[in-house]
């Protein structure tokens, strides 16, 4: 005869074991890619690369950043990052003068092309970067200046 | 629960373009309300895309992604009728998953 208390403690144990083994589907995905708080707090390129465990980035013609020359509204700036190079591990979108540089980070799998578009907020006119982190450890980037007439942070 | 996402996936040759529009405030934590208090940050942190149940893309976002985020990416090897699933988790632990079919 099991008491309710025993039942509860047992199911808690089992849940703990499952979690440790990464059996919960939701937790398993969270473990493969934990949210990188340090990277999203980084203020400079050097800090950011350190938090991602990458070397210094090199400018490259093979990485493309798309965006407007002048953005009327800094709250919605369409930007895109793409590269045709094979062996891309990660693509990053950065806005240089935002309170935190990193906007978005995409883990590129085999079934996805290294070509992403999204919309970001920009506090003021600054450079935006597309960064491609390669499987062989190289870090390549492209930059583009976007002028903002109305800021998207604060206000 | 947040509003549903709008997902459109169109196949062209061996390439499928997926466009997603999510409904989310994406509060940065930088803004102040009328009383001068900081509005706490509230934004999508993780986005996952699945093709027929298999994860093909994971992304991590910061608060500087625009309100009601838009995301476009290209899938290789998907064909008409395949299922695209998109899910996100925000920094309050809220989540939402939606599915669309490649056309």
Plain-language structure description:
- The complex is a heterodimer of chains A (155) and B (103).
- By secondary structure, chain A is an alpha+beta fold.
- Chain A has two domains: 1-34, no CATH class; 35-148, SoxY domain (Immunoglobulin-like, Sandwich), CATH 2.60.40.
- Chain A contains four helices and nine strands; from the N terminus they run ααααβββββββββ.
- Residues 22-32 of chain A have low confidence and may be disordered.
- Chain B is built from no helices and seven strands.
- By secondary structure, chain B is an all-beta fold.
- Chain B has a single domain (6-101), classed as Immunoglobulin-like (Sandwich), CATH 2.60.40.10.
- Chains A and B meet through helix 2, strand 4, strand 6 and strand 7 of A and strand 3, strand 4 and strand 5 of B.
Q: Provide the residue-averaged pLDDT of chain A.
A: 76
Helix-and-strand structural type of chain A: alpha+beta
Radius of gyration of chain A: 21 Å
Shape of chain A: extended
Structural class of chain B: mainly beta
Order of helices and strands of chain B: EEEEEEE
Largest sheet of chain B: 4 strands, antiparallel
CATH class (first level) name of the largest domain in chain A: Mainly Beta
Order of helices and strands of chain A: HHHHEEEEEEEEE
* Estimated share of beta-strand residues of chain B: over 45%
Helix coverage percent of residues of chain A? 10-25%
Supply the CATH architecture of chain B: Sandwich
Which pair of chains forms the biggest interface, and how many residues does each contribute? A-B, 41 and 35 residues
pLDDT under 50 segments of chain B (min length 5)? Answer: none
According to CATH, what is the class of chain B? Mainly Beta
Keyphrases for this structure?
heterodimer, A: 155 residues, alpha+beta, Immunoglobulin-like, 2 domains, six-stranded mixed sheet, three-stranded antiparallel sheet, 4 helices, extended, B: 103 residues, mainly beta, four-stranded antiparallel sheet, 50% strand
């Amino acid at each position: 005869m099991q008491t309710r208390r025993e039942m509860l403690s047992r199911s808690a144990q089992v849940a703990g074991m499952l979690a440790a083994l990464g059996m919960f589907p939701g937790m398993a995905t969270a473990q493969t890619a934990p949210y990188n708080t340090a990277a999203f707090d980084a203020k400079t390129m050097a800090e950011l690369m350190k938090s991602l465990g990458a070397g210094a980035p090199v400018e490259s013609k093979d990485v493309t950043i798309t965006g407007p020359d002048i953005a009327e509204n800094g709250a919605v700036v369409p930007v895109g990052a793409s590269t045709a190079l094979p062996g891309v591990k990660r693509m990053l979108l950065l806005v240089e003068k935002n309170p935190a540089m990193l906007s978005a980070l995409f883990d590129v799998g085999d079934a996805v092309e290294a070509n992403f578009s999204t919309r970001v907020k920009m506090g003021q006119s600054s450079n935006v970067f597309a960064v491609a982190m390669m499987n062989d450890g190289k870090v390549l980037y492209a930059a583009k200046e976007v002028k903002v007439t109305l800021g998207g942070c604060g206000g | 629960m947040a509003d549903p996402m709008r997902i459109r996936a169109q196949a062209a040759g061996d390439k499928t373009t997926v466009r997603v529009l999510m409904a989310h405030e994406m509060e940065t934590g930088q803004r102040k309300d009328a009383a001068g208090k900081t509005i706490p940050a509230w934004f999508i942190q993780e986005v996952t895309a699945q093709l027929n149940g298999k994860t093909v893309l994971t992304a991590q976002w910061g608060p500087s992604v625009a309100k009601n985020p838009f995301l476009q990416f290209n899938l290789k090897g998907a064909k008409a009728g395949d299922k695209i699933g998109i899910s996100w988790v925000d920094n309050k632990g809220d989540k939402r998953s939606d599915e669309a079919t490649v056309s």
